[in-house]
Amino acid sequence: MAVVTPPAPPATRSTRPTRRRGREGGGRGDLRTAVIFLIPATIGFVVFYLVPTLRGMWFSLTDYSVLAPAEFVGLANYRRLLEDPLFWNAMGVTGYYVVVNIVVQTLIAIGLAMLLQRMTRSILIRGMALLPYFVANVVVALVWFFMLDYQIGVVNVLLGKVGIDPQAFFGDPALALPTIALINVWRHMGYTALLIFAGLQTIAPQLYEAASLDGASAWRQFRSITLPLLRPVLALVLVVTVTGSFQIFDTVAVTTGGGPVDATRVIYLYIYDLAFAQLDFGYASALSVVLFAVLLVVALVQLRLLRAGESDNA
How many CA atoms lie within 13 A of 85 on its CB side? Predict the structure, then answer.
């Protein structure tokens, strides 16, 4: 009797190479898509940031006034700024403004963020804190300029009703710069508080509950839990606010124009005056390069000292 052997099943082709090719093809497709989306941003960065920065560095080594070709002078502009009293005055005024603005704004923003977290869950109320930030700097400066006017300003009218003499907020050298700093604090504190509020949302409530059970006061919880865990957010906030404070220009230009007696002549206003009033673009470019270097060093030092990206439970 013959034994019938069943036919062997047909060999199946392995699909691994196909899947590998699919993955490789998908990876190349994702790379092409990413490159396509990055091209517009890259073009904008090169055209509006990189090229102007490199041209500014080149102009800082020249004597350039637009009306004549640029003449290479090497480091003459940098030697000139070392002996320029107006430059050092502008840097001192800017540094004073930065200190006042950062200290007051950060303290108020932390307090406002804590209030938003503990006292209300209304998105509307939280959003209202951002309203001043949505108003243009020039508009804010004009509104406060008329509100603080020596003769007709509503603030001086209210001060007169309580027996206080009118104050020359923009005419007194001792008051002008702090007044400008407080105007900008009013505009930006909502945005800064929003950043800090977002950081507060990342802190687990269980930490506060455990601290309360251990008898820790509200101040102790803030010092030992909130501040240490907010370190990465505070590092970001300080870098952003310090960099922005060094770039103060429009509020000063609208309210005081650098006066009285150069009490509010910040570095940006001095650079603008050199470039567009005196047409000394070479020297103005040198000051811009120095300011860029100062901001870079300040940001790096801040990130280093605050250990950005790290938090602890001190």
Answer: 1
* Tens digit of pLDDT at every position of the chain (314 positions): 444 555 555 555 545 555 555 555 556 778 889 899 999 999 999 999 999 999 999 999 999 988 888 899 999 999 999 999 999 999 999 999 999 999 999 999 999 999 888 877 777 877 788 889 999 999 999 999 999 999 889 999 999 999 999 999 999 999 999 999 999 999 999 999 999 998 998 899 899 899 999 888 989 999 999 988 998 888 888 888 998 899 899 999 999 999 999 999 999 999 999 999 999 999 999 999 999 999 999 888 887 876 655 655 44
Phi then psi for residue 286, to 5 deg, are -60, -40
Q: How far apart are CA 44 and CA 41, in angstroms?
A: 5
Reading phi first (left if > 0) and then psi (alpha if -120 to 50, else beta), residue 265 is in beta
